[in-house]
Specification:
single chain, seven-stranded mixed sheet, five-stranded mixed sheet, 12 helices, binds glycyl-adenosine-5'-phosphate
């Protein structure tokens, strides 16, 4: 999204932000969920999550209790923090979306780089929301990681539509390229009433999770909402024209992506549990073992291979138990290759490389191992 493109730059903006930013962006007013409270047990829920409300009512019904709800109230999701050395301390906010850091730094970026519209600013980092109902493991949490692209275009309907469609397809391809099954992905257009306050148009990329089709990433046409509210303009260096660019945004959740990559990769193959993660996503790219831990000559060569490979790849080491158990342990954490140093290695300077998915083994010269892994992991 950044390094392989000439039209996108990356930034890392602040997490704690001035209330003025959130006032201008409309979040103090519009970043809300409807909240209802159970009059019986005072548990709070999002009024728009009908399945959760039904489930809760049924729990009370089972106990022979009445359950009814308060009128929905708007509940702001921004997280307040109080800072400073004088009392009362000053109120600030943890960023509710990482996006605003891009807009308030827009002029720093355009004045310090050669980038010209159309161009994008991408960022990855923590966001915080006082969610009413966090849950489904890391799917909805109060502290989570976002990965976003804000792509700036001329204020023109046709251009914005073209760029919106381009990014929506690119982002879908990105998830498929990292292994999510196509049949478990779909686009879903937002109805007018569910759109965020800044969005003119929005579509989600959804994943077919065990708990239903769920949002993985949102593609938003934010128009000039943010830049105009922050009173930021752009001057075209060729024509000299000054205008407020429009923004097409791709906003994904890192935690959600990880959760779905894990669910997608989980497989049972006979008595093996295998995490069939894409090689680029696997935490360890390979594990190195000496066949026997009590044979110093095997350990010495294995250790050397491990130390050499570690300079380039994330590599695990294991010399416990028998070889079969080590293979199974690596399968469960998704390590694509296991490299074993055995007695033949001492004579031929080669190793066995076992493939996680096929369990097939081949002998590779130690001198070719680095290239072999490079090719198998990165191509
Ligand atoms: N800047 C636009 C924006 O923040 P969003 O649809 O509110 O849009 C974007 O959030 C993505 O962030 C979502 O598609 C989701 O993947 C992730 N996300 C949002 N709230 C989350 C939460 N409470 N826990 C985990 N991920 C969350």
């Amino acid at each position: 999204m950044v390094y392989e493109r000439g039209d996108v730059v990356g930034i890392d903006a602040a997490i704690i932000m001035n209330p003025e930013v959130w006032k201008a962006s409309g979040h103090l007013e519009g970043f809300t969920d409807p909240l209802v409270e159970c009059k019986t047990c005072h548990q709070r829920f999002r009024a728009d999550q009908e399945d959760k409300l039904k489930e809760h009512k049924e729990e009370h019904d089972k106990k022979g209790e009445e359950a009814s709800w308060t009128e929905p109230k708007t509940f702001n999701l921004l997280t307040e923090v109080f800072l400073g050395v004088t009392e009362p301390k000053q109120k600030a906010y943890l960023r509710g979306e990482i996006t605003q850091g891009v807009f308030v730094n827009f002029q720093n970026i355009t004045s310090s780089s050669r980038i010209k519209i159309p161009f994008g600013i991408a960022q990855i980092g923590k966001a915080f929301r006082n969610e009413i109902t966090p849950g489904n493991f890391t799917f909805r949490s109060r502290e989570f990681e976002q990965m976003e692209l804000e792509y700036f275009v001329r204020p023109d309907d046709k251009e914005a539509e073209k760029v919106f469609n381009y990014w929506k397809e690119e982002r879908m391809k990105w998830y498929v390229a990292f292994g999510l099954k196509k049949e478990n992905l779909r686009f879903r257009e937002h109805e007018t009433k569910e759109r965020a306050h800044y969005a003119r148009f929005a579509e989600d990329i959804e994943y077919n999770a065990p708990f239903g089709w769920k949002e993985l990433e949102g593609i938003h046409h934010r128009g000039d909402w943010d830049l105009s509210r922050h009173k930021i303009t752009y001057k075209d260096s060729e024509s000299g024209k000054e205008y407020t660019p429009w923004v097409i945004e791709a906003s994904g959740g890192v935690d959600r992506a990880l959760l779905f990559f894990l669910i997608n990769a989980y497989a049972e193959d006979g008595d093996r549990i295998v995490l069939k993660l894409h090689t680029k996503l696997a935490p360890y790219k390979a594990a190195v073992f000496p066949l026997l831990a009590n044979k110093p000559e095997l350990v010495k060569l294995a250790r050397k291979i491990y130390d050499d490979l570690r300079k380039e790849f994330f590599i695990d080491w294991d010399d416990r138990g028998n070889i079969g158990k080590r293979y199974y342990a690596q399968d469960e954490i998704g390590t694509p290759f296991c490299v074993t140093v055995d007695f033949e290695s001492l004579e031929n300077n080669d190793v066995t490389v076992r493939d996680r998915d096929t369990t097939k083994q081949e002998r590779i010269l130690v001198t070719k191992l680095r290239d072999y892994l490079h090719h198998a992991i990165l191509d």
